[in-house]
Structures are given as structure tokens and as C-alpha cells.
Design goal:
Elements lengths: L1 H43 L20 E3 L16 E6 L2 E6 L4 E5 L9 E11 L5 E8 L6 E7 L3 E9 L5 E11 L9 E9 L2 E6 L2 E7 L7 E7 L7 E11 L8
């Protein structure tokens, strides 16, 4: 009898232990489910960023600046001085320079540009191999420190970085040496230049084709300006700008 009673008590203890373990396990699973449900609810309400294409931003994205030059509602400088001519009419901004120097036309906005995708359609009307049209990018107020993109009259391009040296003279360092490309159309024909700046990376396209990409860490933000430069070997340079659009781009790696 004593032996049977001992076995009975042992079975009761085991049974009680199993019940306790089942209760503890159930409580653990219940808490885990609550945590999982809460996490899933939180994630499902987190907005997902939509990547912005590198050089073809979505039509729903508002541009930082855009102009087709149907009028001068944007406030471009159209002041004429000796050797420099600026006109805006009939959907064209025309810049001419006969002074063997640079004619600068800053974009009329207070926006300080950092990351962006820019497209500009232009026609070089008159230019030789030393004349150019182009862009200053991420420039300071005096355009002493900036990136510079040149398109020359002989279907050559270059990309450079400008800075002042210790004597306050302008130094120009080529990031892309002057290079001839068949992607550029000849004088009198339209070309579309596209520049994407994101972080330390620049991508350049001509007429829809990627031409060059580079990385440089020096300039983070600044103004954008158009320019034409009359070199030493011609009587003048003239360019028609047909449109200019600058879009913001998402914080993602360039492709």
C-alpha cells in the first residue's frame, strides 16, 4: 500500500509539473503573438520611398526650376553691354559674346542646388573649337569655386573644377579632359545636355546617351549658371537655349 501511494503522489507531481509547463508555454506564445502583431501593424503603416529615376524624373515630381523661354516671367538678365548680347523671345534665350571672355547668365532663382537632374536643349549657332557653351554647377556667389561643363564648337566637351589659388588667381583642373564625341550634333543643330549631381557623383549625358561619369568630393552645393565663352581664335560665339529644367532627385545611388 505504501508503495502504491508513493507512485500515486509521484504521478500527481509529474502531472502538475506538465500543467505548469503548458501554462508557461501558452503565456510565452501569447506575448510573442502580441509583439509580432504590433510590429506588423507598425511596418504596414511606414511609407515606402519611391526611387526617382536618375535623369528621367517622374512627371509628378515638381521641378526646382523650369523655363521654355516663351516670356521673361522668370526674370532672366537681358541687359546688353559692349560685346555681350542677351535676348529672350519666341521660346529662345540667345547669348552672344564677342569679347574673347566669358558671358555668364545665372539662373534667376535663390535656390541653392545640391542634388539635382538638369536637362538643357541648345543650338550652337556660331562657334569654333575654342568657343564654348556650358554650365557652372555648385558654384559660389562669384563662381570662383565650382564645377564647369563645356561644349565646344568642334563637338568636343570637357568637365573641370575651378578654384582660387593662393594668389587669388583662378585655377582650372580637368576632371574630364577635352574630348571629341560623335554624340554631339554639329553647329546649327539642337543638342540636349543632361547633368545629374548626387552626393559626390556627376553623370553627364548628351542626346540621351551617357557620355561621362566622375566622382569628386570638393563642392557640395551652390548656384547654377549658363555661360558662353568666346575664345581667342574667332570673332564671336552665339548660342540659342531652347529649354532648361532642373528636377530634385531622391537620395539613392546613381545608376
Amino acid at each position: 500500500m505504501k508503495h502504491n501511494s508513493s507512485n500515486k503522489h509521484r504521478r500527481l507531481r509529474i502531472f502538475s509539473l506538465l500543467i505548469s509547463l503548458l501554462l508557461i508555454l501558452g503565456a510565452i506564445l501569447f506575448v510573442a503573438k502580441l509583439v509580432r502583431d504590433k510590429t506588423q501593424s507598425s511596418v504596414s503603416h511606414t511609407p515606402t520611398a519611391t526611387p526617382t529615376p536618375t535623369l528621367t524624373p517622374s512627371g509628378t515630381v515638381q521641378p526646382l526650376f523650369a523655363d521654355t523661354f516663351l516670356d521673361n516671367s522668370k526674370g532672366w538678365s537681358v541687359v546688353h553691354v559692349s560685346g555681350y548680347t542677351r535676348t529672350l523671345q519666341n521660346g529662345v534665350l540667345t547669348l552672344s559674346d564677342t569679347n574673347h571672355t566669358v558671358l555668364v547668365e545665372s539662373i534667376p532663382t535663390n535656390t541653392v542646388f545640391s542634388d539635382f537632374a538638369l536637362t538643357m536643349t541648345f543650338t550652337l549657332i556660331q562657334a569654333d573649337r575654342n568657343d564654348s557653351v556650358g554650365l557652372y554647377i555648385r558654384g559660389d556667389s562669384n563662381l570662383d569655386h565650382d564645377y564647369r561643363v563645356d561644349i565646344f564648337g568642334d563637338n568636343t566637351y570637357s568637365i573641370s573644377k575651378e578654384t582660387l589659388n593662393t594668389n587669388n588667381d583662378l585655377d582650372q583642373t580637368f576632371l574630364a579632359q577635352p574630348t571629341h564625341t560623335q554624340l554631339l550634333n554639329t553647329l546649327g543643330q539642337k543638342n540636349t545636355l543632361a547633368i545629374t549631381m548626387q552626393g559626390t557623383t556627376m553623370v553627364m549625358q548628351i542626346n540621351g546617351k551617357t557620355l561621362y561619369s566622375l566622382t569628386d568630393t570638393q563642392y557640395k552645393r551652390g548656384q547654377i549658371a549658363l555661360f558662353v565663352q568666346n575664345g581667342p581664335t574667332s570673332n564671336g560665339v552665339t548660342v540659342n537655349i531652347h529649354n532648361l529644367t532642373i528636377y530634385p532627385i531622391a537620395n539613392q545611388a546613381l545608376k
